[in-house]
């Protein structure tokens, strides 16, 4: 019965549309149960994205976990009203992207810029076995450097193996697969 808990929770959330209030809905890196929903959306992913903490001026404006992907939307008061779209999926198209400094061990990070002026816009990717997190951003030129730093510090990656261990220890449930 406990083995079925996580898939049942995912089904309930997906059936309700998962349009829960923004700040409470976005999974924090310490929220084991909410992270289980994200992990179940892309079962092969060896990492799952989460929010460490929202910096001053940032807010979560959306969260949607469904079979095959999880989407989070973040917004800074200095981004000119343009949200950052964070999407966990099975794979990403890295065509034209350049490899950068990885955000975690076992992760490869890439960036593809669309424009640098007047808007610093593009896509950043964190790629790992079984999954990929895509970050689509468009920041005004000038505050773009601290905004990119804040984005990288805000969104964390939790290893699926650690999440599996924590679920077993805290709730005595198994994360499938």
Description of the molecule:
Helix 1 crosses helix 3 and helix 3 crosses helix 5. The N terminus is likely disordered. The protein is globular. The protein is an alpha+beta fold and 177 residues long. The longest helix has 12 residues. The strands form 2 sheets. The protein has a 7-stranded antiparallel beta sheet. The chain has one domain: Protein Transport Mog1p, Chain A, CATH 3.40.1000.
Q: Which terms would index this structure?
A:
two-stranded antiparallel sheet, single chain, 177 residues, Protein Transport Mog1p, Chain A, seven-stranded antiparallel beta sheet, alpha+beta, 9 strands
Mean pLDDT: 87
Structural class: alpha+beta
Please give the CATH architecture: 3-Layer(aba) Sandwich
What fold name goes in the CATH topology slot? Protein Transport Mog1p, Chain A
Global Rg: 16 Å
Q: Report how far apart the termini are.
A: 15 Å
Spans of at least 5 consecutive residues with low confidence: 1-23
| Contiguous helical run count | 5
Oligomer: single chain
């Amino acid at each position: 019965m406990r083995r079925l808990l996580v898939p049942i929770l995912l089904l309930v959330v997906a059936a309700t549309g998962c349009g829960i209030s923004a700040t409470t809905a976005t999974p924090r890196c310490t929220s084991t149960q909410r992270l289980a929903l994200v992990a179940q959306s892309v079962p092969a992913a060896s990492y799952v994205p989460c929010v460490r903490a929202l910096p001053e001026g940032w807010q979560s404006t959306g969260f949607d976990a469904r079979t095959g992907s999880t989407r989070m939307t973040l917004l800074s008061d200095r981004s000119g009203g343009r949200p950052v779209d964070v999407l966990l999926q099975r794979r990403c198209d890295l065509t034209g992207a350049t490899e950068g400094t990885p955000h975690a061990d076992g992760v490869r990070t890439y960036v593809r810029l669309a424009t640098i002026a007047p808007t610093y816009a593009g896509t950043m990717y964190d790629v790992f076995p079984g999954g990929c997190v895509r970050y689509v951003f468009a920041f005004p030129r000038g505050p773009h450097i601290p905004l990119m730093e804040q984005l990288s510090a805000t969104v964390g990656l939790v290893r699926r193996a650690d999440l599996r261990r924590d679920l077993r220890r805290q709730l005595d449930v198994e994360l499938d697969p």
